[in-house]
Amino acid sequence: MLSILRRKATAGGSDAVLLRERLRKSCAPATTRLQGYATAAKEMMVRDALNTALDEEMSADPRVFLMGEEVGEYQGAYKVSKGLLQKFGPERVVDTPISEAGFTGIGVGAAYYGLRPVVEFMTFNFAMQAIDQIINSAAKTNYMSAGNISVPIVFRGPNGAAAGVGAQHSQCYAAWYGSCPGLKVLAPYSSEDARGLLKAAIRDPDPVVFLENELMYGERFPVSAEALDSSFCLPIGKAKIEREGKDVTITAFSRMVGLSLEAAEILAKEGISAEVVNLLSIRPLDRPTINASVRKTNRLVTVEEGFPQNGVGAEIGMSIIEDSFGYLDAPIERITGADVPMPYAANLERMALPQTEDIVRAAKRVCYRSLPMTATA
Amino acid sequence: MSAAFSSVRAIRRPGSFAGEKHSPPVASSKFASDFLGCAGRLPFGALSVSIRPRSARRRGLSSVVAVSDVVKEKKLKRSSSSSDLLITKEEGLELYEDMVLGRTFEDMCAQMYYRGKMFGFVHLYNGQEAVSTGFIKLLKQEDCVVSTYRDHVHALSKGVPARAVMSELFGKTTGCCRGQGGSMHMFSKEHNLLGGFAFIGEGIPIATGAAFTSKYRREVLKESDCDHVTVAFFGDGTCNNGQFYECLNMAALWKLPIVFVVENNLWAIGMSHLRATSDPQIWKKGPAFGMPGVHVDGMDVLKVREVAKEAIGRARRGEGPTLVECETYRFRGHSLADPDELRDPAEKARYAARDPIVALKKYILENNLASEAELKAIEKKIDEIMEDSVDFADASPLPPRSQLLENVFADPKGFGIGPDGRYRCEDPKFTEGTAHV
Q: Which residues, if any, are the signal sequence (chain B) (predicted)?
């Protein structure tokens, strides 16, 4: 991989070198994210992207260790930590008993005292047993200690609904963690996002909640050569324009980005050009990017999997009203999961989660291309 | 009171186990997985030390026991005349039928899953039937059972019809939870099955609460005949979770009518119990909190039943909780999605040889409690019940759209007031499922 970049540096002049240096130094935000580097046809699954990110960060810094249930011998409950036990040994890839509150606290304590743990939850539902440690011991500590104790920890795991796993396994916690000061909350979509954000999270000196998605683990995405470099990381707090458009802005994160892109394709055939914004960072929210997009298109649809009240869409909507009210040509629409615990029956589950058709209908509503009465969920 | 437990020889175990060479002579490499299986197979007189910790004696409680030896002793001392057998013919057939129902149901679940009729997470109970049958068949309808995600067989033993459980697994509206709960969330008010929890350890405080209610009804509400007992089932992995310890403390403190049943099948997904636990002997954690801790061979339904009688009897008489550790094994993987690569095939074979249904059948036939033909008739009956339940589930309708918003609240006014000033739940569109959600 490095050799490819070296060739690029000599052939393409100084641009590639400058970009690489900037990324390596501080993950400072580039003013535009160049998508032109994705010329390499290499594809990678999200699960492998996370695996390589963990592998590289653990190789680079011996203070980084992984802790969680089934991360070692079982190769990861979803195989994200495959091969890591064999490579780094049981002291750095720690299989824990089923004691979420306990081992999360142990991770936070290790971070207080100088290590850089990555705590894996089998799903973020189980993190509710440890949420006291995440919020009270990790998020608030740098503030309470006035900078004496910083907590460079990453909490990661699958978030949101899978397929038919019932009410206690399907909640999306983006809104809950996103409301806490002291936490950084990230939600990748593609493999490049996953790699870049996880590396940034592990290098970050603050507690980061890293929300993955079980259904995305097996999805393949093309990755650029730049993303495969071990120094690649994405800036925290920057959203990404996945698809440019001019008629309506659709914001989404995690799996919903995929549905939004599908919806954008359908809308394009009907003459509506949708701009899809991949939030990437729930906290801090990239308000400038979202506002700039809405000022361009004048209409907004927010999409998320979680419950409607006090959700991510509510926050985005309010941010637009505060900063870009005069630019809105239509009321803001939010597409969320249904206001019910996730039902088990397959048809009810489909109704309880946003589908592509819901996003298309909402976009049409804000573009006044459909009858303006409340439509079906 | 504690007479039954105190008459038993207690077996002392050394502190660390993995790899320790100790008589009885077992190869050290096998000891780690064998030691729990040794309890029922130790020759008498070897390594038996009577232990009565002073604190326990002061309180009059017995503590350290290995009850499997009681049963063996009883059987050896007496002649095998039918009047001294552990069960009558009716009981034997009832136990046999219940275990065969559990096994056949779980096998049918696997088939249906691979045919795509069931989805999500399905955790099967093959091999552990003795624990469910041994305990639940001694309970009344009013007694409560709380379980984890491995709850199909607990539901069936408690009396939930196989049709209702199968429909629930298919996600149909005729299921015991109308298709809203699924495999991991079986609830039944009629049969007092209080769930079905996906998080391990979550059910233990719930069970303790049900026991608290039972005591409250007797003492505060003055329902003097309320002696309902709660039985909580959970696994070895749960015994490392904080909620377990909190509830052991409170149940003993308040003398709640509950039995904590640990189905120790040695594995929590891919994590061996011995790798996850500092002291793998879970029954010892009972005396630490002031309740009897009992270890029993969970592959033998008769032994489990003997222990269950004592424990449930204690709870019913108001003497407080008991911790029962059943050494058992699941023949299949953790769930149908688990490749099950980490368990040693030799270990699996060893436990497969101790199949509880085979053992009970052998006992029934050897002691002439019933004939081969009667057992075959039971198996045939179960097969018919199974076919009927699958057909019923197949033919049942999917939940209608309007069901999405039902049952969120017991009082649906929780959905708030709509734009027209009336409660949203009163809007006809709401109940038809066409309102904006």
A: none
The verdict on B95 and B200 lying in the same domain is yes
Q: Which residues contact B136 (CB under 8 A, 6 or more apart)?
A: B98, B145, B154, B157, B158, B231
Interval B312-346: pLDDT, tens: 999 999 999 999 999 999 999 999 989 899 999 99
Q: Evaluate whether residue B63 is within a structural domain.
A: no
Q: Hey, what are B191's tokens?
A: 């049969």
Q: B334 and B243 share a domain?
A: yes
Nearest 5°: CA angle at B214, between B213 and B217? Answer: 80
| Global confidence as pTM | 0.82
- Asked if B180's CB is within 8 angstroms of A164's CB, the reply is no
d(CA A202, CA A200): 6
Question: Annotated catalytic sites of A, by residue?
Answer: 100, 169
Structure ipTM: 0.81
CA distance to partner chain B, nearest, from residue A100 (Å): 8
Q: Which residues contact A55 (CB under 8 A, 6 or more apart)?
A: A83, A84, A87
CA distance B329 to B129: 10
List pLDDT tens digits, range B343-380: 999 999 999 999 999 999 999 999 999 999 999 999 99
Which residues contact residue B362 at a Cβ distance below 8 angstroms, ignoring those fewer than 6 apart?
none
Distance CA B264, CA A86 (A): 29
* Same domain membership, residue B414 and residue B269: no
Pairwise CB contact (< 8 Å): B171 & A96: no
| A77 chain-B contacts, CB cut-off 8 A | 269
Identify whether B9 is part of a domain. no
Please give the residue range of the domain that contains residue B363.
86-395
